[in-house]
Amino acid sequence: MIASLSGTVLQVGPTSAVVEVGGLGVLTLCSPGTVAGLRVGQRATLATSLVVREDSLTLYGFATADEREFFELLLTATGVGPKLAQAALAVLPPDQLRAAIASENLVQLCKVPGVGRKGAQRMVIELKDKINAVGLSAEPHTGAVVQPVWRDQVARGLVGLGWSEKDADAACSEVEPLVAADPDTSVAVLMRAALQSLARG
């Protein structure tokens, strides 16, 4: 398996890039977010996943190893192929996908093109245990800390009510001591506390 690719970027397209490795131009299919970080003529390193089919060998490129591992995890779900898995990561980063699956947030999962309610339910059923076992308890390979599920839910709720992401993040920090004191505090209670904090502020 080709786990990563390092070399000079020769070409960048909307959903692909060509990277020169040892004199060979290697085509990798990438999400728009990954492509946005690449510049022609500059060196780049991509985490990669090789998808083998009877009639093709396709290399998918990712900005981080965490994205690649989540891509490969999504492929284990029934009905999820490489294009759908890549679309999911283009719409939602790994931490948000983890949170959506762990909290059974079908509305969030249905934001992915090609994923309907039944498909979202299937993803939750087939991947939730795997997410709980390794996803939320581990840090991504980038070293960034995965946001707790409650924080993601409260922040999304506040943004949905019209608050800015900055204000929502600050309110989550205000109510964090409640979770520290009682890890079983419900999201509804945390949401009310966050709204009270914003009202005071």
Briefly, what is this?
50% of the residues lie in helices and 20% in strands. The protein contains 9 helices and 5 strands; from the N terminus they run βββαββαααααααα.
Task: Give a description of the structure.
By secondary structure, the chain is an alpha+beta fold. It folds into three domains: 4-62, Nucleic acid-binding proteins (OB fold (Dihydrolipoamide Acetyltransferase, E2P)), CATH 2.40.50; 65-135, Orthogonal Bundle (DNA polymerase, domain 1); 149-200, Helicase, Ruva Protein, domain 3. The chain has nine helices and five strands. The chain has helices at 32-36, 65-74, 82-91, 94-102, 106-109, 117-135, 149-160, 165-181, 187-200; strands at 4-12, 16-21, 24-30, 43-53, 56-62. A five-stranded mixed barrel has the order 1-2-3-5-4. Helix 7 runs antiparallel to helix 8 (165-181). Residues 133-146 have low confidence and may be disordered.
CATH superfamily of the largest domain: 5' to 3' exonuclease, C-terminal subdomain
What is the averaged pLDDT score?
85
- Classified by CATH, the class of the largest domain is Mainly Alpha
| Level-2 CATH architecture of the largest domain | Orthogonal Bundle
Q: How big is the Rg?
A: 19 Å
Q: Work out the helix count.
A: 9
Protein name: Holliday junction branch migration complex subunit RuvA
Family: Belongs to the RuvA family.
Domain Helix-hairpin-helix DNA-binding motif class: 72-91, 107-126
Subcellular location: Cytoplasm
